[in-house]
Design brief:
Blueprint: E1 2-3, E2 8-14, E3 19-23, E4 28-33, E5 36-40, H1 43-60, E6 67-73, E7 79-80, E8 89-91, H2 95-107
Parallel strand pairs: 2-6, 3-7, 6-8
Antiparallel strand pairs: 1-2, 3-4, 4-5
């Protein structure tokens, strides 16, 4: 988690390998690794639940601050399929850019 005066970001870090896919209509997250397909709990849903919980707590405590989330893939060898392009999921090398974009958004 990253807390700034302007926003909070919750990061869900995953050490996954293979080619990662997401079927948004079915909320299905899976990978193909060594020619085998494996389904996983959806990390996007997982971190979204964390976001909702934190927002609920902040409202209860009367704090008003935006809360964002992202799934970070720690394994640089993992391949992110195009099906993930519209979602906040990226390799760890993308974290600085993601944070910079949030700062830009918060300044507007």
């Amino acid at each position: 988690m990253l807390m700034t005066p302007d926003f909070i970001v919750i990061f869900e870090v995953k050490l996954l390998s293979g080619v990662l896919f997401y079927k948004s209509a079915q909320y299905e997250f899976y990978r193909i690794h060594n020619e085998k397909r494996e389904n996983f709990r959806n990390p996007l849903d997982q971190v979204y639940r964390h976001q909702l919980f934190l927002e609920q707590c902040l409202r209860k405590w009367q704090f008003t601050i935006p809360v964002f989330f992202a799934v970070v893939i720690a394994n640089q060898q993992a391949i992110l399929d195009e099906s993930l392009e519209k979602f906040p999921i990226f390799h760890i090398s993308g974290v600085p850019n993601f944070i910079e974009n949030l700062y830009r958004i918060s300044e507007e």
